[in-house]
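Summary for the steering committee. One of the milestones for this cycle was to obtain a three-dimensional model of the protein with zinc ion bound, which we needed before selecting residues for the alanine scan. The sequence and ligand used are listed below.
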Amino acid sequence: MASSIKTRSARLFRSSAGIRKRAHDAKPRQSTLERAQQQMIRFTRSKANHSDAMVKSSDPATEPNSSLDDDSESHPPAGLGLLDLPQELREMVYAHFPGVAVIPINQDPATFLQPAISKTSRLIREEALNVFYSRKRFFLDLRGWKSSAYPSTWTPRRIFNEWVKAIGTSNATRIKHLGFFSHNFTANIQISTQKPPTLILKFRTLSHSKEVAEGIGAAYNFAIAARRAEQGLRLLLDKIEPQLDKNGGINVADMKKICRAIELIQPFLCTRPSLGWAGTTIPRDDMRMEDWPCAKPHVRNCGECGYLHMKSL
Ligand SMILES: [Zn+2]
């Protein structure tokens, strides 16, 4: 049972049905430009021989929700298609799918699938996926909430890893924005487009002036813990950065390492009392993450860090 759910989730990451539903939901807010762009896409898709077969094979149950095919209003002039537009304009069209800039990975995978337009031809697929993965901001909520579409035992990191595996290295290297947030911190990582690329870290804390370690004394507080956590993450990114140019961007293995590191930070910044604080005290600024103390006693007992509420689903 679990493996069939897993296979289904992996397949859903690449399906097109959800995007089509989203396009339908967003229709009342469409501008004239967006409507014109959608008409252009409809026209192009109607000319693509195998387009319909590929899209319909994704999930027939969602067909009634489609707004891309059920509207037989006026079409652009005959002979004019998406590929007749300059690439810059085509990219403007791609950027509208899906119509959101930030994509939460914990949501039902049907809400952040590769756009249906990427199924029309090889060239359009390359261009559309390039825009999709490089311009959207993908982020993971580490607080434990997740869509019921995922198996109940999947932690946020497991969801992230399955998603990265499903999109593959070629798409992973296109990604330019990765974000993570927990109860009291956010970590945003931008992969710059300069040569050679760099990893820009924006680490923010959402809580302050709270003791992290009972018995450690006032000298060790949340601000110090946050600074050391950020420093640990920066040291990891510094190790990944020199490989970016050679690999063509950030790869699957690096993305998994980053997610693991950020999940590791979480208990060290947790502000719940009496749950093994001493084990979540980072003694020095310059410590590598692999040398940090063991936070397991805290994680085992803390619902925020251990996703305990997920196990009861
Ligand atoms: Zn905790």
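Key point for the committee: Residues 15-30, 46-74 have pLDDT under 50 and may be disordered.
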